[in-house]
Amino acid sequence: MPFPFINRRLNVKLNLMLVAAFGGLLLTLGIIVNVNFPVLLRQLGQSRLEDEAVMVERRFVELEAQTLNAARLLIAMPGMGGVFETGVTSQTRTAFLLQASSLGLDNLLVVNQDGDRLVSISNSSAAYNRADEEKLIKLGLIGAATTGLVTADDTRQVFLSGVVPVKNAAGTVIGAVLVGREIDDALLDELDYARSATHLGFVYDQRLVARDHSKPEEFDDVLNDEAAFIAQAGAGQLVMNMNPAADADGSADVIAFVPARVGGEIQGVFIVRFELSAVYTFQTQLVRNSLGAMLTLLFLALALAVVFTRRTITRPIEQLKQAAEKIAAGDFSQRITISSQDELGDLARAFNTMSAQLNSLVTQLQQRMAETQAAREEAERASQVKSAFLASMSHELRTPLNSIINFSKFVVKGVMGPINERQEETLNKVVNSSKHLLQLINDVLDMSKIESGSLNLFVEKEVDVSDILQTVAATASSMLDDKPVELQLEIAEPLPRITGDKKRIMQIMLNVVSNACKFTQEGHVKIMAQQQNGSLRLAVEDTGPGIAPEDSELVFEAFKQTATGLRQGSGTGLGLPISRSLAEAHGGRMWFDSVPGQGSTFYVSLPVQSETLQPVTIE
Ligand code: ADP
Prior knowledge:
By secondary structure, this protein is an alpha+beta fold.
């Protein structure tokens, strides 16, 4: 399957790559946030809960101190001394009442040195546990300022109480003041500053004495569900439950259990419920904001990257492409204006250089072509002149030459009267020389036709090569005279009839066979023919002097002869080049094998049916 988008525009591909890269980045970011967010939340929740627990602890210590201070303020009240000396007047009572309520106290007890209750004020009818009170009063009367819890037997309220000794000017303890504040919802609100995500409860003696009035239902089952944690805190350890049972409103809460120390003793346990959603909302907002900012930045970066790739990559490439197209269309004046120092800039500069070089090359080429065209036209004209000259010359020469031959033959035959032996011999020489000259003229004419490309074949169908070879063999045997050379003809019948020029095929074979007869002094000359894959292969084997390898191309060149040929004397060096051209004009080929000193074999291969040869009637 081909790679998707392979055929899209470069611009599209680059932008897709950028989007994919940025998309991948976003996805990674999303996964990281998603995986780490809950863990982060839990850790943040735990640390917030710890903070809340510590704060409640500290705040409670402050409240204890405040309670003691309230008692001290009461002692410093004017008229306090009179309470011990003269007894309580209605005036001092009212003053106590006012002071106690202004200090936020729920009860107040003043005792003398003997523990007699001089003033007892309470804003409820609760029956305070005497033992609890006595314990604290005793401490006060021995001069200690301390705190403790006082319970109410009937209402089961619990009071954070403080006792302070009252001393006379000499520093002797003459009594004590005991004050108390109920540990109720209001006090709990003070401990956590009534923050909405934090809900407090207070457990004393396995009782839930107070709970956050804004969410009381959250504490309904706390004594049962969290008994183990409460017991641990009761033993003095600050513990946290990070996975409590789902609470009433289904929100995810975490709970801390804080030992409540009063007067240095663990007296109860504060339950600090913290709503994780407070952290969650804040953190989600934070993450959302950061993600939003990151997204915006990413999109900005993406847009920048898109613009950047367009400016620096795709647009220059587009320019290059357009210029290349124009050059391809032949406009070599194209130049690209990319000046950047990167690879594209280098490419553009190389392109401009190439374009300039192409321009000059094309100009030169056009110039040369024009010159060549002119030269060719000139040559063609010259060749036509030459052909015309040769044609007329050969005609002019052949006619008288034929007359010479024929008249000489008449004279030899004695038609003109008897001639003596010497005359006959001389006239025969005239006939032979004339024939040789005629042959030479014919060869020169053929060669000039071949060179000027005006050689036309007289193509016939059904040419009987076997017949041609018989005729050639008859001529050859007369050439061999009385030389000890055996002429053999070996035709692998049946030979197919072929399409070609009968006279020209005869000319080829006569040339090759007469060369063989001419150069072979003893041995044999064998003419062979056979069909071979749609071709006719003709071969002439001789036992003559052979041809040296270095002469193998020379023998096919016009007017070129080897040393053997030159020594022989007769010959023009035109036979083989003409023969090869004729074989090629038939769509065939000609070549030879030779071992110098042993002989040569010339081959001619002609197609049986040649597509290029059309039977014509003009020569
Ligand atoms: P010509 O025979 O008229 O000289 P050719 O073109 O027919 O010209 O042959 C060229 C030369 O090739 C010959 O002069 C001769 O040197 C060499 N040649 C041709 N045929 C043979 C052959 N059968 N044996 C040896 N040499 C040959």
